[in-house]
Amino acid sequence: MIWRRWKFWLALLLAATLVGLLEGAQVYTGASAMGRPVTWARALGSTMPSWYVLVAIMPAILWLSRRFPLEPGRWRRSLAVHAAAAVAFAVIHITLASWLSDYVLYREGDPAWSFGMNLSRLLTIYFVVELFTYFALVGAYHAFEYARLLRQRDREAADLALLATRLEADLAQASLDSLRMQLNPHFLFNTLNAVSVLALKGDSQAVVRMLTLLSDLLRITLDSRDQVVSLREELAFLDRYIEIERIRFEDRLTLERDIDPDALTAEVPSLLLQPLVENAIGHGISRRAGPGTVRVEAGIRDGEVLELRVLDTGPGIAPGRLSGGGWPSNGSVEGGGDGSGVGIANTRSRLRQLYGDRHELAFHDRPEGGACVTVRLPLRFFSSEPVRRAGARGVPVAHGARPV
User: In angstroms, what is the C-alpha Rg of the chain?
Assistant: First the structure.
């Protein structure tokens, strides 16, 4: 508390000195104006003791204010105590100030002077003022204490809000980490199943190559805990995965790309494209006898949306299992048999965690045959150079980004 610090009492003593000096100057000039001049010593002697006595009594007033607060449930008893204390304060303050000012300092041997008569006169004049002074000090104490408690509660509320925000962020991060790590065993099991098929065929070179690629992919996913990466990084990871799939399907699988160079440094969730391409291969290419094509497209739409598309030449999506929707009102368009697997369900959950309603995940059939999955995300960049190029077209900039 502020009144428990020596600086508070030093400041109070200096304030009392200043007010006493000002009041003494008023007495000096007033007496001179009335034709009854007094010395500076006499003028200051009549004012300074009163303020110094008040400072000396202040600790008792603060103790009583703290011990008997005027608060609900206790105010009647506290008010009675303070009423008695106010009377005692008035008598003690006036008595000590008068004694120091007149009797000790400036009695000057005047035989007509009587301390009792002078004290009675001062009590008659200043008693009510002293009562108001006491309750003003008590009120000031309660005002400062209330303000202190209010600031303390505000700090505690802010600390709790910050803690809640951190806990919410940690919970969201833990949820995202859990969803992301689900992809590792899902991808691992699918790849090991392909390895076992190749091993049964006796293709040892393909088995070794696939296990090497699988080791590289797992090392990348386990070493990186980033929830978002640049599209360039995501495509590099996808290249390694496609190599594995090409070993499985040999000449049956063709991968095509149409990537806007300005979109290469756009932010995308890590491991976003792999389950979409895996879904296209598993539900598209693997269900047809001849060769098939998977096409990955990426571009910037309307200067503020990153659009990713994965298309295949498979049999399309099973009828009756699609639902519609648009950007960005409904956030995620769920539907289709191709959207029901672990990888796609996981992708849908991660997008919802990362972007809320500002994303779209939609499945639909292509008019020329096959299926298409479309992902639309808010456009955010990592590096500064693409931001300058895209900024000329009015694309918003994501601040605090890291270089790719």
Answer: 42
Q: What is the reported pTM? A: 0.50
H helices of 113-228, in order, are: 115-201, 204-223
**How would you classify the pairing of strands 292-301 and 360-365?**
unpaired
How far apart, in whole angstroms, are the C-alpha atoms of residue 360 and residue 375? 5
Distances (CA, A) of 54 to 15, 50, 106, 252: 12, 6, 20, 99
Token pair, residue 280, equals 């296209």
Residue with tokens 């009583």: 64
Binning the chain into helix, strand and coil, the percentages to the nearest 5 are 65, 10, 25
In whole angstroms, give the CA distance from residue 266 to residue 232.
Answer: 8
Which tokens in the block code for residue 344? 């796609």
Q: Rounded to an integer, what is the distance from CA 77 to the centroid of its chain?
A: 45
pLDDT at residue 326 above 50?
no
Asked if the model's pLDDT at residue 238 lies above 60, the reply is yes
Residues 6 or more apart whose CB falls under 8 angstroms from that of 80 comprise: none
- For 278-320, how does the pLDDT look when each residue is reduced to its tens digit (9 = 90+)? 888 887 887 777 888 999 999 999 889 999 999 998 888 765 4
Q: What are 258's strand-pairing partners?
A: 297
Query: Running DSSP on this structure, what letter comes out for residue 398?
Result: P
> Beta strand pairing status for 228-230 and 267-269?
antiparallel
Give Cα 304 distance to the centre of its chain.
26
Distance CA(197)–CA(209), nearest Å, equals 14
**Beta-strand relationship, 360-365 and 371-378:** antiparallel
pLDDT, one tens digit per residue, over 106-159 is 545 455 556 677 778 888 888 999 899 999 999 988 898 888 888 888 888 888
Question: Would you state the torsion angle of the CA atoms of residues 389, 394, 395, 398, taken in this order, to the nearest 10 degrees?
Answer: 90
| Cβ neighbours of 18 (radius 10 Å) | 11
Helices 115-201, 231-249: axis angle to 10 degrees equals 20
The number of beta carbons lying within 10 Å of the beta carbon of residue 164 is 10
The whole-angstrom separation of Cα 311 and Cα 372 is 4
Instruction: Give the burial class of 391: count Cβ atoms within 10 A of its Cβ; 0-12 exposed, 13-18 middle, 19 or more buried.
Output: middle
According to DSSP, the residues that pair with 362 across neighbouring strands are 374
- Closest CA relative to residue 216, chosen from 181, 244, 182, 253: 244
